[in-house]
Amino acid sequence: MDGKAAPRVAGGGTTRTRLDRGRGALGPALELVHTGRAPTRAVLTAELGVTRATAGAVAAELEALGLIRVDAHPGAAAGSQGRPSHRLEVDGNGPVVLAAQVHTDGWRAALVGLGGRIVATAPGCETVDADPAKVLGSVVDAGAELLRATGRRCVGAGLAVPSAVAEPEGLALAPLHLAWPAGAPVREIFAERVRAAGIAGPVFAANDVNLVALAEHRHGAGRGARDLLCVATGHRGVGGALVLDGRLHRGSSGLALEVGHLTVNPEGGRPCHCGSRGCLDVEADPLAFLTAAGRDPGPEVSLLRQAEDLIRNRYDDPAVRTATEALIDRLGLGLAGLVNILNPDRIILGGLHRTLIEADPDRLRAVVADRSLWGRQSGGVPILPCTLDHNSLVGAAELAWQPVLDDPIAALA
């Protein structure tokens, strides 16, 4: 706000006084609009537990920061009575963050605004060098080019990698399906490249499935869940993540919920890189599916794309159907064990697992209900497919947006 005298408002006090009272509500208010839980000022007022005047001052300040838009004259819905409340939405022309994802079959960079909206994406790359510094340098170069082309202000950067990421160092401990060395300091490398490119804001890195869970909880199939379990397989391997009481559960050092190493096929299962046999990681990923369907993986497209195309286009093939049912049974066995331990109120599935549940939802839910302790009595935990495209990218963006959600004024200063 400028140094001019603040105008008086009805009910006593000034606009500035109202804002000062509600300044601590700026972050919570922005998160409510960001996640779509406060589409109007009336809802914002109720959610924050403040007066309408304070909510108005908070919304006006967020608009002045270029973060949201306030529509003071929305059209009334058909049949409604009274004056409609001011509508709130994120500013589509506001600042962005740089989001990046590296996976077995390539990498991608994007600019993501508030609300999980992808503003621009780079073409990406279909090969991943054995040197993480080279890969992350290329990713950041692509992101910097997007920023130049769009002219948008960047307030941070987030990176998703297919590995457990140890905190607080930001080390990729097990990039098993990349040729990267174990313990690669991915966050430090990423931060160095971001700074060298002149991109401002804090820098983060995390496991890709953790970020899927974060994105889906805020903007997708997990919205509204209190205790959310996410299990996904992308191009190789199986990962899991847990949102507890609305917050991503990382464990003591960022390594929680390595669900890929649950044993689901102990008799005759494939050897796993962890030293065990029959783990979910090697029994329920795209390579396992293609092998079970009797297909030789080709080099022309990713394993994930090949597996999904088979299920969607050749499900009447007995070999494809049998392989689908086998993976559903293995996945269901793993999910049932997790339900017994974690008692989530919702499960969401990503990657190939999303395609599996879409192919035969009743079979998967029946396996989980039969194998979990309270499955039949309680009716079973809801199991849903993820709904966001590029949810790892959106989740990486959420990491970078978090400081702004915590304290918009300090983050944007």
Automatic annotation (TrEMBL):
Transmembrane segments: none annotated. InterPro entries: ATPase_NBD, ROK, WH-like_DNA-bd_sf. Pfam families: ROK. SUPFAM superfamilies: Actin-like ATPase domain (SSF53067). It comes from the Bacteria. Residues 1-22 are annotated as: Disordered. Belongs to the ROK (NagC/XylR) family. This is ROK family protein. It comes from Streptomyces poonensis. The lineage of its organism: Bacteria, Bacillati, Actinomycetota, Actinomycetes, Kitasatosporales.
